[in-house]
Structures are given as structure tokens and as C-alpha cells.
Amino acid sequence: MAVWAVPAALATLQTYLLDNPDDCGGSWWRAVLREGLPWAVWAAATPFVLRSAARPDVRRRVGLHIAAMLAIALGFGVANGAIGYVVRAGPPNLTFAGQLEMAIVDWLPIAPLVYAGVLAVGMVLEGARRRRVDELARARLEGELATAKLAALRAQIQPHFLFNTLNAAVALARAGDNDGCARVLVLLGELLHQLLRDEAPQEVPLHEELALVERYLEIQRVRFGERLVVDWSIDDGLRDALVPQLVLQPLVENAFRHGLARRSLAGKLDIAATRVGDDLRLTVHDDGPGPAAAFELGVGLRNTGERLRRLYGDRGLVRLTGGSDGATAAVTLPLHTEAS
């Protein structure tokens, strides 16, 4: 209403100052009714025009916009002509139909310009709104990455794990294995540095994620020793594929907590990366308890599933299945080598 009050005021002022008395000149109330009030039609129609400008297919709906413009122009002309007839603006012998016809014909040429202006403003506002939404989405993803890092430290590098790792280092030192002790501490430092680094990207090449998992597994070997066997199966050409940071490590950690840690004998871990059509599938299989472990979805995997859905929509999936030979955690995401 505030915006459309401007042309209404200008039209009223022009009629009051310049037109002759028969056309409302010199009469404020007649000028306001005849020239100002009809602009309420555009004010009422503006929300609908702005809403149509927000539609993603706005440029393809030409016929609908033409029809809407003509309807608004007709409404404006009818309002102008009807009010003009009531306040006796124009020639005294002009009929009501003639008054309507004159008003419609006079204002029809300007209606497309006014409608196009409103539509353009709506498209600009919608573009700005979408940019704000995208910025909020990026900020949300960055926040979720930070949350995932903290969750990794809380749920995967837990105090008891740090305690056991440091105890193992002490035991190696007392046994005279200084090289082994140093190796454990170096690997632990590298893992913590990787998890705590600042300004980490949302996606990293798969080979970086594999390197982080390798450090994690080397530290776990201090705990499991010869009980741990790891088999890697990474398809050619996939090491440069981009994956969310910390997407594979929760799968491995879940296998330890709900699978291998429950075994008293040797345990095997199969880590694979394969191409399935246009998708990348990462799987971690353990030969632990199997079906029971398959339903123990940890916090790390739930967070991973939520991040995948936000990053890739329906193409980002986490699935945990079990069988007599163990449990398998699988992540599926679009295969790409450039940041989306």
C-alpha cells in the first residue's frame, strides 16, 4: 500500500492541478477518488504477482502472466471508470459504459509496463531470498562439520581409548620397544591433528579419508594386535573422488565397537570403495556378532546419514545390515571429483 500510494499521489496531484473542473481539476476529494483510489487494485494484486515471480518456472509461464496482466488492467480500468462516473468526471453526456471504455483504453497501454516492473522486482527479491537460503545452508553444513569433528573426538577418540593407547605406549617403553612407543604417539598425534585442523573443507579426496582411517587402524592394532586383519579393496580411479570428511571413519569405529571388540579370536575388517553406476559406495564389513550388531546404529553413523542427506539429498544414504558372517555398513553418494 505504501509503494502504490506514490503513483496514486502523483496522479491525484496532476489531476487536481492541471485538469479542468469537469475532470476533477481543482477538487481534492474528486481527484483522490478518481485517480488515487483505483491504484488499490494494483496493491491488492501485487502479492499474487510477487508469488508468481517466486516460482521456479516463472519464465515459462508467459501465457499466465499475460492473462494476469490483462485481468489487473481490466480491474484497474473498471475501478477508474466507475469512480469517474460516480464523481461526474469527464464529459457530462458520457454513459457509464462509455466511461468504463474510456478508462480501460486509456490505462491499458501502461499496464504491461507496470506488471513487468512488479514481476521484475519480485524476481530480484526471490533471487536475494534464495541466496540467503543458500548461505544459511552452507553455514549449517559448516556447523555440522564442526559437530561431526567434536562427535568424532567424543565418540571415537573417547577417554578410555586415549587411556588405553597411552598405557600401551607406556608398556612398549617399559619393554624397551622405544620405536613402537614413539610410533603409537606419533600416530595418535597425527590423528588428533587431522580431526582438529581448522578450516577443513566440506569434502576431501577419498585418499585423504583412507589415510586418516589407516592411522586409526594402526593405533587400534596396539589394542587388538594379531587379532586384527584388515583387507583393502579400492577400485582404480576412485582415490581422487570427493567424499565428506569423516564419512568412512565412523563406519570403521562402529565395526570395532559393535563387532570386533566382542570377539575373543582374530577378527577381520574388509574396507572397500566401488563404483555403482554414477554413485560411489563405501563399505566396511566385520566378522563380528552379525545380525545383532547390524541394528546398533551409533551416533557417528546417524550424524553421517544426516550430513549425507543434506549434502546430496536422496542420493546420500547410510545402510547397516547383518548376516551370519558379520555386519556391513555402507555409504552411497554421488561420484564426483569436483566440489558441487
Question: Any low-confidence stretches, pLDDT <50, length ≥5?
Answer: 291-295
Oligomer type:
single chain
Number of strands: 7
Helix content range: 55-70%
Mind telling me the C-alpha Rg?
Answer: 35 Å
Structural class: alpha+beta
> What do the pLDDT scores average to?
80
Strand order of the largest sheet: 2-4-5-7-6
- Taken as a percent bin, the fraction of beta residues is 5-15%
How would the global form be characterised?
Answer: rod-shaped
- Tell me the number of structural domains: 2
Could you give the order of the helices and strands? Answer: HHHHHHHHEHEEHEEHHEE
Task: Please explain how this structure is put together.
It contains 12 helices and 7 strands. With 340 residues, the protein is of the alpha+beta class. The protein is rod-shaped, with a radius of gyration of 35 Å. The two termini are 42 Å apart.
Write the layout of secondary structure elements.
Layout: H1 5-18, H2 28-36, H3 40-53, H4 62-86, H5 96-107, H6 111-156, H7 159-174, H8 178-196, E1 203-205, H9 206-224, E2 228-234, E3 242-244, H10 249-258, E4 267-276, E5 279-286, H11 291-294, H12 299-312, E6 317-323, E7 326-334
Parallel strand pairs: 2-4
Antiparallel strand pairs: 1-3, 4-5, 5-7, 6-7
Helix pairs in contact: 1-2, 3-4, 3-6, 4-5, 6-12, 7-8, 8-9
Summarize the structure.
The chain has helices spanning 5-18, 28-36, 40-53, 62-86, 96-107, 111-156, 159-174, 178-196, 206-224, 249-258, 291-294, 299-312; strands at residues 203-205, 228-234, 242-244, 267-276, 279-286, 317-323, 326-334. It has 340 residues and is an alpha+beta fold. The protein has a five-stranded mixed β-sheet.
